Every structure is written in structure tokens, then in C-alpha cells.
# Entry
Amino acid sequence: MRPLPVFPPGFRWGTATASYQIEGSVRADGRGASIWDTFCAEPGRVKNGDTGETACDHYRRWPEDVALMDGLGVGAYRFSVAWPRVQPDGRGPANAKGLDFYERLVDALLERGIAPFLTLYHWDLPQALEDLGGWTDRDTAHRFADYAALVADRLGDRVTAWITLNEPFVHMSEGYSLGSHAPGRALLLDALPAAHHLLLGHGLAVRALRGRVTGDIMLTNNYSPVLPATGDPADRAAADAFDALQNRLFTDPVLLGRYPDLTAYGVTGLPFVRDGDLALIASPIDGLGVNYYSPTRIAAPAQAPSHQGPSVLGEVGDRIQEAGLPFQDTPIEGHPVTAFGWPVVPDALHTLLTGLRDDYGAALPPITITENGCSSHDEPGRPDDDRVAYLDAHLRALHRAITDGVDVRGYFVWSLLDNFEWAEGYSQRFGLVHVDFETQERTPKASYHWLRAQLESQP
Ligand code: BGC
# Structure
């Protein structure tokens, strides 16, 4: 094993998960239905008809999972709270039993010296709110702030970091624009109100959390550095257009108090933005969560769909093109790909981090890498050397960014466990720990042992 460079003292090492992807027990203790329960029940939505009904059975096996983290030697754990456990219908008083679960988890983490990083929303909206319009309805933003306050009133004195939303871009684009995730709506650009209401919900939640919590308040976005397919001005313009959506739509309003230029999409005004909204959305945050998996290569749109091979957007890319959006994703060649087909480009993490620093300057709060990892063709007994190589290379790129002056405070591997990978069901495995979904047996992979050994030599 080649030791990693030494990270700064106090750097947080962790693993990440999300409620619907691991918990199961979807009807336990008064939990209401979420949009993912509904979506999974619709034929053809999720590969092999998989659902999160049982997932990793973490709702019942969480002590074993906390012990696995302890054995790994990480000092932090990022998980999400399922809104429908706390408010089964998305409004009204708290369901105490739902909060009890997360309180037990948080206390067990703290007993073992593992800092809880709590995400309030990792895509599992109460179905009752979706029935009223979901995130396309402005009221959902207010409901989200009420929910944030309920969780904060119970756990505000104990949680190290509060992450309002996970990857609102993915939730908006896959869930509301393209329909490949719950709630399965295909509104294309008419999903922009959902983007605004997610941002507004973030801002209102930040205001609700301030004064109620002792920990940091953050937002987690996913970023994908955009490479123009060629130096041609049309490809460059397409890359800029894509960058505005993927990387800036949920960052500029929060850090700069303004929307990026969306004129490439024919968007010249945002009529759903009301006076005062942007000030709320730009409420100061204590940290930015950065999720990184791979870069994107973008060309000007061609006449016909031409998805040819490994690319970040996959078949979704074809749908974007058919919809007449001003970009087209193209394969990134010359790099290994993960089981998902995503190109492995560790240097792009360095580019991303130095780019965020250069673009946002003093407006950029300290960064935490809240997700990074890969899916691989895992079977028990087969060492996941490709995952080890992925993590090793990305951690070296991250260390270079820190050496180059980017303020990064922590790194969370996605994921602790193999889990329910959204529309891919159980077909993509991202865990440091293998899960046999028949028996629920957990088996640490080679990557788990590798990370544990690496952490022994970190401060
Ligand atoms: C999400 C996770 C997901 C992972 C791998 C991120 O977009 O936050 O929930 O499992 O990527 O696809």
C-alpha cells in the first residue's frame, strides 16, 4: 500500500449514505409515503422493479452499521433524515417516533466519537406534498423550513453539520425535468420553478436553523467540470450553457445572490422569483458540500441523438437532445470507466476545486467533499481494486488542491454500504462494505481495509 499524503490536522474523514437508499422499513413507526415509494411502485421506473422497501434494512440494523464505521476508523458520518418519518404528510407536528430513530443514531455516533453530518433532504419528499405540486409549488419551500425546525428542535445541540439539500440540480433535472427519478415528471425547462423553490426552501431552512443549532449549516451540490468537445466556438458556447445549469444554477444564487445567465435556454426572465427571495437564498452558510464523480464533455447539439458510449448523462443525454436543449454530451475517451460507465478523471477534482475558488473568491465558504466514490462489479471474494485505485487517485488530487490553497475540511466516501441506487435499483454497488440483499450480510471489501489502514497514518 502506498501511503496517502498527510492531510491537515482536524481534516474530517467520513462515509456517506442517504435515508431511502439504506433504511427500508418504509411503513415503520408512522412513516408516511415518499415520492420514491410511489415511483418504485410504478412499473418500468426502476431497473428490475427494485424498491427501497427493505434496502439495507438499516432502520433495524443501524447498530451494526455504526460498528462498521467505528471499525473503519472514520471520525464523521453523513446520513439523511427521511422527511416522511418526521412529518408523514409533510406538514404539522412531529411524529416523535421518527425523530427517536435519528436521535438514537446520533447519540450512538457521538458515543463512538463519530461526528454526525445530517442532510435534511436527500430526495424523499412526502408524497402528500407532491400531490399538491411538490417542488413546483412555492408552499413546499415553507413546509421544508417547518420540517427543518422540527428536526433542529430535537437534535440542534448535537449535530456537527446540517446540510439542507442534497444535489438539488440532480433532483430538479432527473425528478422534474426528465422524469428518470421520482417524482417522474418530465417538464423540461418548465421545471425551473422547482429549482427556485428548492433554493428558496434552502434559504428559509437556513434562517430556521440559525439560532436553533450549534453546528455548521451547509448546502451540498454536485459538480461536474465541463470540457468543451472541441475548441469550436459552438462547442464552447454549448459547454458554457451546460455549465450554467449543472454547476451554477444552485451555487450562484446561494453565494452571489443572483441567477446565472440562462439566455442560451431562451430564458430571459424568472417570473416566479419574488422580491426578497434572492436575499433569503443568499443567507450566509458555513460550508459548501461538494459531491464529485466525473467531468462532462459537451458539444453543440447535433441533428439526431448520438449517444455512443460511456458518458455521464447516458441515455438521458439523448432525451435532452430530443428536447432541443442547447447542448449534447459526448463520451470522454482515454480514461477507465466505472461499472456505471462514468469516466474516472481524478485531475478534474483538482480542476473543480481550484475553479470554485477562482470563480467565487471570498464568497466561497470552506468546502467539504460530501460524496466521492464509484460503482464497481463487486462480488464477495473479489477485491475491489478498482475502487481502491479510484479513491487513492481522487484523494491525491484533493490533497494537491489543498496544497494549492483551496480550503477543504473533510472527505466522505460514497458510500458506506452497497445500497439502492435510485433508478438503477441494486444493480450498481458503491459500498466500502458489500451487502448481500438476500441475507443482509455485510462484508467489508478490500477498499474498506485499505481506507482503514490509510487512516491509521493520518493525524
Ligand atoms: C447522490 C447519491 C447517489 C450517488 C451515486 C449522488 O448523485 O447523492 O444518492 O447514490 O450520487 O449515483
User: Anything to note?
Assistant: The domain at 12-456 is CATH 3.20.20.80 (TIM Barrel). Residues 306-312 have pLDDT under 50 and may be disordered.
